[in-house]
Fold this protein.
Amino acid sequence: MSAPVRLFDPAADSLADLAVLHAASFDAPWNEAALAALLDTPGTFAFHSRDGFVLARVAGDEAEILTLAVAPAARGQGLGRALMLEAANRSQELGAAALFLEVGVANPAALALYAGLGFANVGARKGYYDGQDAAVLRLPLPAKFA
Ligand SMILES: CC(C)(COP(=O)(O)OP(=O)(O)OC[C@H]1O[C@@H](n2cnc3c(N)ncnc32)[C@H](O)[C@@H]1OP(=O)(O)O)[C@@H](O)C(=O)NCCC(=O)NCCS
């Protein structure tokens, strides 16, 4: 059984664990200091489990996914979806009417995950990830998850 997903508590939970998870998923890892600075920003929160985390921010009536990472060995078991559901629900609780994110157009796993959650393509960014184009996706809140 997979570990439970919980709201990240900066006073009690390990930023080092989040940094390890991020480094295992991205070529340009965010270190503990970078993650701490983000979590210190008003409206920013994270959900995590042993094998993954999502970081999001609410500003006014809009929320944004800042990053999402699942450990390679734990992928394909529903954790990414579970983290996104928690982030969407909390974003709505904090007043957001829509959740946005940017995703590389050559990231089929993430694109499929977001499409399955009901995100729609609302824009494009050229050269967003190391020269790779990104799509801007939007999910209206409250989300109607299947
Ligand atoms: C994207 C990522 C978070 C998905 O996490 P995950 O835990 O494997 O995703 P889930 O198991 O919850 O999958 C949910 C859905 O996503 C889709 N999906 C996930 N992995 C997929 C893959 N490799 N190929 C195609 N679709 C995939 C499926 O539609 C799946 O639904 P299903 O269970 O009905 O098949 C993970 O692959 C990851 O960390 N990648 C590296 C970092 C990254 O790209 N983050 C997102 C940046 S925007």
The beta strands are 6-7, 44-49, 52-59, 62-70, 98-104, 120-129, 132-140. The pocket of coenzyme A is lined by residues 25, 68-70, 75-81, 103, 107-110, 112-113, 116 (CB under 6 Å). The chain has a mean pLDDT of 95.
